[in-house]
UniProtKB/TrEMBL annotation:
Superkingdom as given in the UniProt entry: Bacteria
Name listed for the protein in its UniProt record: Uncharacterized protein
GO biological process, one term: double-strand break repair
Keywords (A to Z) from UniProt: DNA damage, DNA repair
Organism (species): Paenibacillus endophyticus
Membership in a protein family: Belongs to the RAD52 family.
Length: 243
């Protein structure tokens, strides 16, 4: 019985491909996307053998302590089928999402439900190493650190993962790349701080900025265009406040 439970936990907590681990520079944390977690659950339980839903009767719109923005909070029910027990196991956890600039409450509710799903999944082992703090961000190398045994797992799976070498084994090429990365990062510090300041004034905190910024960059929106967009939203907000 115990070995089966451990086997299930190990499958759920198995390493993700290295590229799936992301770093939130604004929240200073490593994370895994909701899509990656969905794929892991499908892989372990099978499609149709797990499910989740927002309990809309529990949804609340609360004001942030700063008073500048609102946050959606909702309980999420997560269930999976236990083949050994031949029954469904259900967990409930809370999810939340700040109503960010340009986001309506419906979008925030969807994100809050995903957040609740990820929390429930973590309780049964998905990305447990991540939540334990075993996977960290190395500021010096500007790379995510994963445990050494992940290398063996990647080799066994036949994955070719571009895991950056440790500081002690960094070669000249990597050193040069790190130097260029640091140089570019230093160059962009003023722009990044400007984006942070605008977001902070709009939202009251930096919650969700990294994900929103990454999404805009994927849409090929430049940092200057992002600054202009935030300036416009801030002007609109001030106009509404003085109307």
């Amino acid at each position: 019985m115990t070995s089966n439970v451990l086997s299930l936990f190990q499958r759920l907590n198995a390493p993700f491909p290295y590229a799936e681990y992301q770093y939130d520079s604004f929240g200073d944390r490593c994370y895994i996307s909701g899509q990656a977690i969905t794929e892991r659950l499908n892989e372990v339980f099978g499609v149709g053998y797990w499910r989740y839903e927002g309990l809309y009767g529990t949804e609340k719109i609360v004001q942030e302590p700063s008073g500048k923005n609102t946050r959606v909070k909702i309980y999420v029910q997560f269930s999976f089928y236990n083949a050994e027990l031949k029954e469904w196991i259900t967990l409930i956890d809370a999810g939340s999402e700040q109503v960010k600039p340009g986001m309506n409450e419906g979008d925030a509710t969807k994100s809050a439900i995903t957040d609740g799903m990820k929390k429930c999944a973590s309780r049964i082992g998905v990305a447990s190493d991540l939540y334990k703090g075993i996977i960290t961000w190395d500021r010096q190398r500007q790379a995510i650190n994963v445990p050494d045994h992940y290398q063996h797992y990647y080799q066994d799976k036949g994955w070719i993962e571009p895991i950056p070498p440790s500081t002690s084994t960094t070669n000249n090429r990597t050193t040069k790349k790190t130097y260029l990365t640091d140089k570019l990062k230093s160059k962009g510090t003023t722009t990044q701080n400007q984006i942070k300041a605008l977001w902070q004034e709009l939202a009251g905190s930096l919650d969700g900025l990294d994900e929103w910024h990454a999404k805009k960059r994927q849409e090929r929106v430049s940092d200057q265009q992002i600054i202009n967009l935030l300036h416009k939203k801030l002007q609109d907000k001030r106009s509404c406040a003085t109307a």
